[in-house]
Design goal:
binds zinc ion, mainly alpha
């Protein structure tokens, strides 16, 4: 290894380490941090983001990068590292340090204001922060540069390489496929779900059972943890988060700039794949349901496997995205995408957002929120200034469907393995096709190589039609 290369790699690893400390601070902020830590945490994260910005944009780092890029005989991994770091630097160099820290500080304040606004269902408490975040992030988008579509640089921050022009027709076809599906499924007699809301789902038992489940799909508890989470959905939240965790556990562990996901969409594809495609399937529960019944004899005494599957796959028009079923879920996302596209373009004023939200829900999901707490204030994302993030949830669902389709083709015994409680071959397939690349390739390139095609709605739609026999 030449000196030029090792100097560059050491500097790049240091930046990556600082970014992961920010990730840790952000995770703590959203999980365990007491409310009074908010001001200090906002200051800490703004300071850290400032340090990362300065290191990444420094002339000296630019020289290290270009000298390393000029080294003869770089291997594909090294070339990928150059590409990834150059992209990060080029994005960051366009931003003034002032803007980077101002956004970080405002995010911290906005999240705290949003928590109170949501609790009291008073959008007006959040409005000034939202306005300020929109203004700051529009300034950021303009600084990063775009060809007339201000939303693009924001989308690119979550889903590198994706554009509004590319996404809109895919989303439109997805919506055209989903709306009649929801219509059909909600007109059927609803499945029995009474047992899900019985208040005898003991949290400790759920936790112990969730540990068994995530271990069963291959999650390594020496390299990750599961925290307690109550509510009827705890088991599925555990599967979802374990799916993210399995991906993280399969990424390159060398601490290089490649030891990261290439996009949020691909990250979400891994969580949704385990939560829904596997975790709500009949083969999966044919193995796990007897153990579930043994753990919860009381709430499940009179419940059959068929009734359980019916309940966990029930489709209904509902208000809250995170509780939505697989079919309606994407309509929640598409509504948010259109709204944020409108306010970033300047076509919708922040103060008009609650009304626009309610109208969009009526049109897309077929239900009108009774208040802002269950409407426009339900998600943290806009309070965090995360515009351009929501689309990655639906991109993740579409990638998950495409990957499952390809995995079934490559692994003829996949469902037998799942029914036997041992989906190891699927995990190994995902490791080889997706996880191991880290950021060495773009998300869509990884999907193309694994499945033969890029982002498309068709596998998700055909999966849902087959599953619900429509
Ligand atoms: Zn997720």
């Amino acid at each position: 290894m030449t000196t030029a290369w090792s100097h560059f790699e050491a500097a790049a690893r240091e930046i990556r380490a600082l970014e992961s400390i920010d990730g840790l601070a952000g995770w703590d902020q959203e999980t365990f941090m007491p409310a009074n830590g908010a001001e200090a945490r906002a200051t800490q994260r703004a300071a850290l983001k400032g340090v990362i910005h300065e290191k990444l944009t420094h002339d000296r780092f630019g020289e290290l990068l270009e000298r390393a890029a000029a080294v003869d005989g770089l291997d594909t991994r090294q070339l990928a590292m150059i590409r990834a770091v150059r992209r990060d630097r080029e994005r960051e160099i366009r931003l003034p340090l002032r803007l980077v820290t101002e956004i970080a500080e405002e995010q911290g304040r906005a999240v705290e204001a949003w928590k109170i606004a949501r609790r009291e269902s008073r959008f007006s408490l959040f409005l000034p922060h939202l306005k300020r975040l929109i203004a700051l992030r529009c300034e950021e988008a303009d600084a990063r540069g775009h060809s007339g579509e201000r939303y693009d640089p924001l989308l690119d921050g979550s889903e590198p390489g994706m554009t509004t022009a590319r996404l809109r027709p895919i989303f439109a076809r997805l919506r055209d496929g989903l709306v009649p599906l929801v219509e059909e499924l909600t007109s059927r007699p609803p499945p029995r779900t009474d047992f899900l809301s019985r208040d005898v789902w003991d949290t400790d038992v759920q936790y112990a059972y969730s540990i068994d489940l995530i271990r069963g799909i291959g999650f390594n508890l020496e390299a990750g943890r599961l925290d307690r989470n109550d509510g009827a959905n705890a088991i599925f939240s555990a599967l979802h988060e374990a799916g993210h965790g399995l991906y993280e556990q399969g990424l390159p562990v060398d601490g290089s700039p490649l030891s990261n996901a290439p996009s949020m969409g691909i990250h979400e594809s891994q969580s949704r794949l385990w939560e829904n495609f596997i975790g709500r399937s009949r083969p999966f529960w044919s193995h796990w349901f007897p153990q579930l019944k043994a753990r919860f004899p009381e709430p499940l005494a009179d419940v059959s496997l068929d009734e359980w599957l019916g309940a966990i796959n029930a489709v209904e028009r509902s208000l809250i995205r995170v509780d939505a079923d697989e079919v309606t879920y994407n309509l929640h996302v598409l509504a948010r995408f259109e709204l944020e596209l409108a306010f970033i373009r300047g076509d919708l004023k922040a103060k008009d957002l609650p009304g626009a939200w309610n109208e969009k829900y009526e049109k897309f999901v077929g239900i009108r929120p009774p208040d802002d707490r269950q409407g426009v204030l339900q998600d943290i994302h806009w309070a965090g200034g995360d515009f351009g993030y929501f689309p990655t949830y639906s991109i993740g669902n579409m990638y998950a469907a495409a990957l499952m389709q390809a995995a079934q083709r490559d692994l003829p015994k996949l469902w037998d393995d799942v029914a036997a409680g041992n989906p190891r071959a699927l995990l190994d397939w995902l490791r080889a096709k997706v996880h191991t690349h880290g950021r060495a390739k773009d998300a869509e390139q990884i999907v193309i190589e694994a499945t033969g095609e890029g982002l498309t709605e068709k596998h998700l739609l055909s999966y849902l039609r087959a599953k619900y026999a429509v």
